[in-house]
Amino acid sequence: MPVQMGLRRIIISEIHEQQVIMLKEVEGDRSFSIQIGLFEASSIDRKIKRIPSPRPLTHDLLAAAIESLGGELQDIIINELKEKTYFARLRVRQNGEITEIDCRPSDAIALAVTCNTPIYVAEEVLEDLSEG
Amino acid sequence: MPVQMGLRRIIISEIHEQQVIMLKEVEGDRSFSIQIGLFEASSIDRKIKRIPSPRPLTHDLLAAAIESLGGELQDIIINELKEKTYFARLRVRQNGEITEIDCRPSDAIALAVTCNTPIYVAEEVLEDLSEG
Questions:
Q1: Superfamily grouping for domain A3-131
Q2: Domain ranges of chain A
Q3: Within B25-104, where are the H helices?
């Protein structure tokens, strides 16, 4: 069963290339952090702080493109951890069917925050973390 | 009539926030440059140099999302210049119809380069430039 997670913290450092995002279980205490790029971290940060943008930014455009093509983001899931790299999928509903689109967790989370949809993590990913 | 443009040059400066992209008419000599962000400039630069990425980057994800939802990018057009800001549209074919999606020229060009589709500029935009 996928576990719903909430965004707990974004740590943006202008010194380092990689930024850190922390997710925490909605109905529990397990948490984990992912390293993401500055662009994706800034995009997520802007959304959370509701900083308006005069023009649609790249993740806004992604959301608009999905909607324009008759799709609706249902949720996103971080579904795999392989050799220290996380993998994610967008789950988009279109004509009553779910299409899954492979992506990086950072883009998935930025889109989930843009569209206000849930963020899930596969149970196996959380278990792999506790074993590591 | 929209005028087809080719990407002539990308100037990436690590000192300045804004980068510059130059477009030139395919069948003529008119050209113009647009200031874009570092993220979009890097994304375009990677595509042109065919630098492979281990994971789909944000513009790859945008291309994958359009394709997964049954769309096909036909072309992009920089269709307006208003108060020194350029506006663009993606033209996506889906079920035989064209859907136009508003975006920034930088995202439009990055996507056109990713999908290998033509870049157009509205004649009025080129005329506005020569008058300015």
A1: Bifunctional nuclease domain (3.10.690.10)
A2: 3-131
A3: 38-48, 58-68
**Count of pairs with CB atoms under 8 A, one residue in A, one in B:** 83
Best interface-test mutation with B: which of A59, A68, A91 has the largest number of B CBs within 10 A? Answer: A68
Do residues B94 and B69 make contact, with C-beta atoms less than 8 angstroms apart?
Answer: yes
Residues 6 or more apart whose Cβ sits within 8 Å of residue A14 = none
Q: What is the Cα–Cα distance from A66 to B51, expressed in whole angstroms?
A: 27
Interface confidence, given as ipTM, is: 0.92
Strand ranges in B58-132 using DSSP code E only, listed in sequence order: 71-82, 85-94, 97-103, 119-121
Report the C-alpha gap between A110 and A58 in whole angstroms.
10
The pTM is what?
Answer: 0.92
Instruction: Give tens-digit pLDDT for A61-115.
Output: 999 999 999 999 999 999 999 988 999 999 999 999 999 999 999 999 999 999 9
Task: Provide the chain B residues 46-105 that lie in CB contact (below 8 A) with chain A.
Answer: 54-59, 61-62, 64-66, 68-71, 85, 90, 92, 94, 99, 101-104
